[in-house]
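Worked example

This section walks through a single chain of length 103. The input is the sequence exactly as stored; nothing has been trimmed or padded.
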Amino acid sequence: MQDQKIRIRLKSFDHRLIDQSALEIVDTAKRTGAQVRGPIPLPTRKEKFTVLISPHVNKDARDQYEIRTHKRVLDIVEPTEKTVDALMKLELAAGVDVQISLS
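Given that input, the structure is written out below as C-alpha cells.
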C-alpha cells in the first residue's frame, strides 16, 4: 500500500460528535503506524429557514431555524494493512457521516 493515501471526510450536525470521531480515527491510525494529516476543519454550511407562525394573518410573526453542517477532512499517508483493518472495525457515532476515498 505504498504511495497511497486514504482521505476521510466527516460530516455532522453536532461539532462535538465530529471532533470525537476525528480523534478516534487519528488515534487508531497512529497506533497502527500510519502518518495522519488533520483533522482539517472545512467551512461550516449554515442553512436558515424562516417559517410563518400564524396560519392566516400576522405576516410579522415568524420563527427562524438554522441547521449547521460541520465538516472535517483527514488524510492518512502511507497506510499499512493494519491501518485499513483497524479503520474498518472502528465504531463511530451514529450522527457522523463518513466518506472514505483511496488515491
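What to look for: Residues 15-31 form the longest helix (17 residues).
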